[in-house]
Amino acid sequence: MDYQRLSNLSQKIQNGAATKSEKDDYMWMIYQNGSISKSQYDNYKNNQNVSDVLNAGLTIGAIILLGALLKKVVNV
Questions:
Q1: Cα 13–14–15 angle (5° rounding)?
Q2: Which of 29, 52, 27, 55 is nearest to 41 (CA)?
Q3: Contact yes or no for 33/1 (Cβ under 8 A)
Q4: Residue 39, exposed/middle/buried by CB under 10 A (0-12, 13-18, 19+)?
Q5: Is the Cβ–Cβ distance between 72 and 27 less than 8 Å?
Q6: Mean pLDDT in consecutive groups of 10 residues from the start of the chain, 76 residues
Q7: What are φ and ψ of residue 43, in 5° steps?
Q8: What backbone torsions phi and psi does residue 48 show, to the nearest 5 degrees?
Q9: What angle do CA 34, 61, 5 make, to 5 degrees?
């Protein structure tokens, strides 16, 4: 996973500066990582509960990034 891209997209989404395409990329990354279910991803893509699913995705992304950071620190 491209953690830098995930972080950049997360920041843009949180700041309200992300385009629809960037939000889509972010959610695709989270889905491809296995962090959200197919039904959650489908709900997002079908404009159902977009805000809720996106907010959940942001939380999950933060956990992924924290895990990657901890792994990096432990391996130093």
A1: 90
A2: 27
A3: yes
A4: exposed
A5: no
A6: 95 96 97 95 94 94 95 86
A7: -60, -45
A8: -110, 120
A9: 100
Please give the single-letter amino acid code of residue 67.
Answer: G
User: Which burial class, exposed, middle or buried, applies to 24 when counting CB atoms under 10 A from its CB (0-12, 13-18, 19+)?
Assistant: middle
DSSP code, position 18:
-
The whole-number pLDDT of residue 30 equals: 96
Separation of alpha carbons 64 and 17, rounded Å:
21
Q: What is the number of other CB atoms lying within 10 angstroms of the CB of residue 46?
A: 9
The pLDDT value recorded for residue 25 is 97
Neighbours of 48 (CB within 10 A): 12
What span, in angstroms and rounded, lies between the C-alpha atoms of 3 and 67? 11
Tokens in use for 18? Answer: 């992300």
